[in-house]
């Protein structure tokens, strides 16, 4: 009866608090003048999408573009230069600060935290800074700021100054070159990264920058031959007009019409290849019939495909050569560096009017990164609560495993079916492939089809929204065939660079594959992405979520619909909820969180009532047998129960108030036991003396809720906490409040004891 009564009281309280949630939101939003002061969204109370959105809007209007969201930094793109925010003086200010976290939120706080983790050799020592967000949110700019920061702070020492400055210049100078060859103007972003890159900044034992390397992913080489209306080619084509653009002037006419080879001649001159061989490789294909070769003229459309293929293969090889050249110029020997900080700048989630294989791969990469974020922060945090025996209501975060199974799963997935079509080496049929998708994958809730659409397509329910993909042309892009005639012509080029790009001749071409395994675009991309995820899982990640405030890239313009969609897609609200819960030890939490103090008061009342019920049972009966469930949940030990019980996850003050006898258990011995006790009691530490280590350390205090090895017993007849001064004047040289009680240095303690003596 008592247990049911407790549950009924708790449910009634929950209902009344939920009923008053709207009032709490109104009360919070009334103080509009103070909304911009919330530099950490975990301080927002209550946490709802509307309150979070209002705070971000207020900060954006006040030209404050960075906001903490618990374990994540939210960066709003101002769409205009803010030079004073990233000056050298600001960098040095954050780098030299004893506690950078006390400064205003900034990307430099994230950078400095990672750098100090390397300095302190906190496991895992290597760091990864993951900059995510949709196209146009500011990822490239953020990565550029991080590179500048590390190149500056890692060169602050006088040791090996010349070497460090040389590496710094090369690291920074490589960025605009790669942006020129890999970025382009799109519908949503004037400087969109059309490839992903992971930049590894290599540090020696003194944490000086001694080298760097770049790993790239999925260059969108189709952009060389085709751009959507109002979009542009890669920046480099508008900066240096040379070789490849001439191929765009080459058109093919039917055999009955007279050809005009002037543009083809110009292209042959620039490529430094024979005109007749260039014309032949574009218009005639070689077929293998047994041991004999048969020449067959290409159709007009096939000639266009071959022309585009020539341009794409040259550009892709040139881009790879550029990355290799940059790496060779700045990558340090493995003996010179021991740790690294990685910067991941990957293309954001994309959804256009026409989406094909490129968008599928890009969005697949974003799905993997979202899963990594969920696994690292949300799942790990919630599982820790369960392990420690805390009462817990799970937050319904967005688990995208079903979508990943649809794209990459085994035995059947979009990728596996695409690869199977390529291995069959037959003419692609978009309608037939759609039928196969429906037959094999219709059980997966993440895929659907628009029955009214005339074009073959499929729609994927991504974590950031639904995207419809056109099937037409997808199989050809996945094959990525290169006719052997094209490779043969390029190997004969008199241009030294172009000749070196194709001299090895080991590139798989359309005719050399035979019956060997076809290496498709999605297979190569999946393998490279898996290697990246292994790196991320082996490092300490730091997440920055870039938000695009409006779709038109207008300065200081905040569109609520645009922002809230991105906040919900990347799980910011869930992150805030869990981070706030971790900080304040709240026990019950749902999507809309009621005030954190009301819950604690209710829990304290319920737990004290629970303790009184046990005391009544003790007085009226034989010693009660300890309930295994209460033991598992860490119930407070009563003096009449002989079996010791761990107090786990309880605020220590509440435990003292509700039990006459408490055992406080620690995880270490000797000096570390003393440090554990001081951490538990929150005794002040002198600056520069010693510190309590986090649970990332192999030794030291993992948690004040960790399993014990030794114990310290404190016996109190009744808690003097009720009479203690809980809010004394702050003094840095004394122990105050509850800690005074435990150390015997508080006048309040003796006063409380006198009061209890007189009362008894």
Automatic annotation (TrEMBL):
Domain of life: Eukaryota
Domain Myosin motor: 36-579
Gene Ontology biological process terms, A to Z: actin filament organization; system development
Secreted in keyword set: no
GO cellular component terms, A-Z: cytoplasm; membrane; myosin complex
Binding site for ATP: 133-140
InterPro entries hit by this protein: Kinesin_motor_dom_sf (IPR036961), Myosin_head_motor_dom-like (IPR001609), P-loop_NTPase (IPR027417)
Keyword annotations of the record: Actin-binding, ATP-binding, Motor protein, Myosin, Nucleotide-binding
GO molecular-function term, one example from the UniProt record: actin filament binding
Pfam families assigned to the protein according to its UniProt record, in alphabetical order: Myosin_head
Actin-binding: annotated segments: 529-551
Family the UniProt entry places it in: Belongs to the TRAFAC class myosin-kinesin ATPase superfamily. Myosin family.
This protein's name: Myosin XIX
Source organism: Cyprinus carpio
Classification of source organism: Eukaryota, Metazoa, Chordata, Craniata, Vertebrata
